[in-house]
Amino acid sequence: MALNLRVEVHPVVLFQIVDAYERRNADSQRVIGTLLGSLDKGVVEVTNCFCVPHKEYDDQVEAELSYAMDIYDLNRKVNSNEVIVGWWATGHEVTNHSSVIHEYYARECNNPVHVTVDTSLQSGRMGLKAYVCVSLGVPNGKQGSMFTAVPIDVTCYDPEVFALQLCQKTMGPSSNRPRQTHPVQDLSQVAEAGNKMGVLLDQVLSYVEDVLADRIKPDNAVGRSLLDLVNSVPHMTNEQFSEMFNSNVKDLLMVITLSQLIKTQLQLNEKLTLLTSV
């Protein structure tokens, strides 16, 4: 059933929606577009999207549907796994025209989802909501439909997590924060991850000590999570751990050295090309 669906949106989709909103025409109040992704076991995973030019009037909506189908066909040539799963719109609420637009997407896929992104920041943040359209009415009587909210979350692949962490370094009200950032070297990433892990372990140890000293009330859910964490750590001796760590460090250093050699070779090739052209 449509009400049992759950929506998971990737960060790249939100970035594309915000970018389309920033590039909108001056007379446009909101922007709409198509959501692409997959549906599996009641979970709608949205991995891509694109904007659909449209105009809204008091009594009608005009959308360039042929443009939308052309863009979808081109995307299918690049990624055949992504299909239409619904549509998106900027704003903090469902409008009167939403049902008209939803009817079109209902012809393109089963149970399309409608995602709204509050780019106007009505609640002080960019709200994210998802809806499905549910039919209402009585048998042999008047029929209607209603947009009903369904759960929605933001999910990330590992590379997306790294990209978001890199983007967060440019955030903040302080004028000392850089507006640009660059990917760091692999060893620097390992050092940064190690420092974060140390901080998290200190927090866990502090919590456990406070519970043992009866300074705070124990939480059974937290205790079970900590037990699962401890049991997930492989049991090995100090010698086994040192051997594994040194082996991984050697592999990492080899990759870094190869990348530097390739970069140097490319630079030399560019210089040789310039010299031969002269």
Any overview of this molecule?
Residues 7-137 form the MPN domain. The model has no long low-confidence stretch (mean pLDDT 78). The protein has an 8-stranded mixed β-sheet with strand order 9-8-7-6-2-3-1-10. The protein has a two-stranded antiparallel ribbon with strand order 4-5. The protein starts with 5 loop residues before the first strand and ends with a helix. The chain has helices at 11-22, 65-78, 98-108, 158-168, 186-212, 220-232, 238-277, and strands at 6-9, 32-40, 43-52, 54-56, 61-63, 83-90, 113-117, 128-137, 143-150, 152-154. It has 278 residues and is α/β, with parallel strands linked by helices. The protein has 7 helices and 10 strands. The radius of gyration is 26 Å and the shape is extended.
In short:
The chain is of the alpha/beta class and 278 residues long. Helix content is 46%, strand content 23%.
Largest sheet: 8 strands, mixed
Query: Which strand order does the major sheet show?
Result: 9-8-7-6-2-3-1-10
Record field, number of beta strands? 10
Q: Spell the H/E element sequence.
A: EHEEEEHEHEEEEHHHH
**Helical region count?**
7
Please supply descriptive tags for the structure shown above.
278 residues; alpha/beta; initiation factor; JAMM/MPN+_dom; EIF3F/CSN6-like_C; translation initiation factor activity
